[in-house]
Specification:
- The chain is α+β, with helices and mostly antiparallel strands.
- Helix content is 24%, strand content 19%.
- The chain has a four-stranded antiparallel β-sheet with strand order 1-6-7-5.
- The longest helix has 20 residues.
- It is elongated and about 60 Å long.
- The model has no long low-confidence stretch (mean pLDDT 93).
- It binds a DNA duplex through helix 5.
Amino acid sequence: MPELPEVQTTLNGIAPLCQGKTIAAVHIRQPKLRWPIPDTLPAYLDNAKIQEIERRAKYLLFHFKRGTMLIHLGMSGRIRCTPEQLPIEKHDHVDIIFIDGSCLRYTDPRRFGSILWADNVSTHKLLKDLGPEPLSNDFSAQYLYDIAQQKHITAKALLMNQTIVAGLGNIYVCESLFIAGIHPERATKTLTLDECRKLIFACKTVLTKAIKQGGTTLKDFANTDGKPGYFKQSLLVYGRDGEPCIECNTPLSGIRMNQRATVFCSRCQPLPPRREG
DNA sequence: CTAAGGACCTGTCGGC
DNA sequence: TGCCGACAGGTCCTTA
C-alpha cells in the first residue's frame, strides 16, 4: 500500500496509538527485507520512547532521543497498531511491543519494504536527495518548469522521480497526467509553464482527495483500523485501460513505460502537442 | 545525463 | 486440478 496517500493514512492511523509510548520489546522474525534490518535496531529501541512520528515522502520516521527509525512499506508493506499482540500470521515480520502491552506490527509479503536506523535523518543516504513534498508550496509550477527544462526525460519519469518530487508513484502519476491532460511520454522540455501549473494542480488535487478517502486499496484489505482505502473507486485511468475515458469515451490506452503499467487517454492527453511551425 | 534492465520477494490471476 | 507466465502500489544498482 505504498504511495504517499497510503503512507499518510498509515501514519494517521498509528500516530495516536503509539506516539509517546515506550518500547518494552522488539521481535524480529524476518530480518531480510529490501535491506537487512540492522542487528543493532533492537538495542536502539529498547526502553526508548517514541517522541514523534512523521512522514517524509513514502517513509515513516519514528523519532527517538537517540535517532530515528525509518520504515518504508515497499510494494506490499503494512503497519498496524493493536491493543495487544494478535496471533502471528504469515509475513508478520516485526513486532514492537510497548510497555502498555500494545503492539506495532510490520507485515510485508513481498519484503520490498525496509526498516532502518538513522542517527541523522537529514544526511541519511535514502532521504537526503528526496525532492520537495508534493503538497508543499515548494512544489510549484515554476519549480517544476525549471527542472523540466533541464531534463531529457518524459513527463511520467519527471513525476516518478523521487528526487524531483517525493511521494508520487505509478497510480497517482497516471491519474495526475490525465487530469492535467499531459501525455505520459511527453518530453518535459516541451512543457509550458502553464502545463506545469496544470500538473501541479493535478498532483495536489489527486493526493489530497486520496488522503481524504484513506488511500487506495487495490487488492486486499485494510489500513490500520481495518477499513480499506476508498480511493480506488475514484481512479480515473489507473487499472482502466480499454475502458472508456470518463471525459470523451475514447477507450483508454495501456502501454508500458519502464516496465510499469501506464494508462492514458490518447484524445485527452495528445502527444506531441505539435511542435512549432 | 538518460534509458533500460536486473535485482530483491510473494501472491494472484488468466490461459491451457 | 495443476502448471506457467505475466503482473502487482517501489526503487536501488549496474550496464549501455
